[in-house]
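== Item description ==
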Amino acid sequence: MLHITFVIEIFKFKYNIHNTQNNFEGGKKKMKYRKILNGAVVLLVFLVLSISNLSAIANIPMDSSIAINQMNKSSFESSPPPGTYYLQLAENFTKGTIPPTGGKYGDWTINSTGGLLWGNCAFHSKSQPYCTKIERGSNIIKDLDGWLITPSLDFSEIKDLKIYLDFWFRGHFHLAYEKNFVDYNVKVSVDGGKKWDLVWNENHIKDDEYSRTWMRIKVDLTRFAFNSSVMIGFQFVTNNLYQFGSQYLYLDEVYVYNETEEQLSCSPGGPYAWDILRQNDYIPEGVRFHGKIDLPHLPLQCSWHWDFGDENDTTYYFTRHAIHNYENTGTYNITLTVTHLIKGLITEVNTTLVLFSGDPLASWNVNVEPFSFGFKATIENLEDYNATSVEWKIEAEWPPNFPLRLKEVGNGTIDNLEPNIIKDIDGSSLFFKLGRIRIIITIIPKNIAWTSRIYKAFKIGPLIIVGKEIM
């Protein structure tokens, strides 16, 4: 039934154009024009009916509250180097049971002297709802030694591959200048706890980097390869009462992983650029991030952990897309960590977000051709100075589900665009579809406000008919 409606609309379109023929002089011109028009309409109707039998038609209304704004470049800089790793241990203390027991990785243990114990904490956790914490607090016993020890890990099959320990640490900044009073040590044993080798402590942190905020710590454990029983101990040890109320340690998101020949490749999208006020245009409010993965069947089996670069992070288990609201303008480093929940593979990639204040509607004029094969538009710099390194992208998206299907159909870079100069941009990638879509044109220069314009449109095979802009 839907394609019949399309045909009716096409005849209406023909009728409206036919009424304008009074502007032509002479019956011959009218007849010639009418023949050309009739032939075009017959061809268009045939195209509609043919494609409608081959294309799935979505009936879900377009949601104007969702916009995808991202450039076509990604940064893969991270430490350790980007790649795929096998997850040997993962614990974020979310169950609130200290020490953690059961589950895939086995039981942790506590070994403490002086009445000091590790416990759970819900107030300052890195990942909700809990982390783990150890502190002197009101304990006035001079010598305290508290250990939290992982289950035994098997590195015997790891040959010529890197092994890493990754965890989040938080201590009190007062102790940054008095590091001799309290030690926060990480040690490794390969003989059941008889001997422990120090692999990290708080002295590795520079004084100007030490604060009461969370810090991500990464330690190379490759030298412990070939061992079948590897335990990692997190130790709090002090023998004085200096600043006893500030003697504490938080620990969260502990991971141990090694390089592997298998591949899990993902991208965080971006770099992103958003006007800070634009966050208010969406429900829920915030910047939209869009992760990608190389194999389409993997996302449902993966967790997607986004670190938003402002001391906030979140984990999604059913979608690769994230939403976050920022309070201040600036440049943020975004980290996406993807973990395959069945294979135990993990990978990490980075990108950036520039959040700025500005008026993108006042900086750019964008016009889209109403009828075209492909996607054709023009852009114009409305500022009174040159726009430099203008990166543009044209995308098409359509239902039936969220996240919307997204296809990039064109991109490019304009090195220097002078004021009031109109520049053509077009999507060279053609694809066949029948139904409603949206066109997203994103323009991001280096030196002035960026803009993203969204248009309602209708696709008939390779033909696109553009409607109103979605404000």
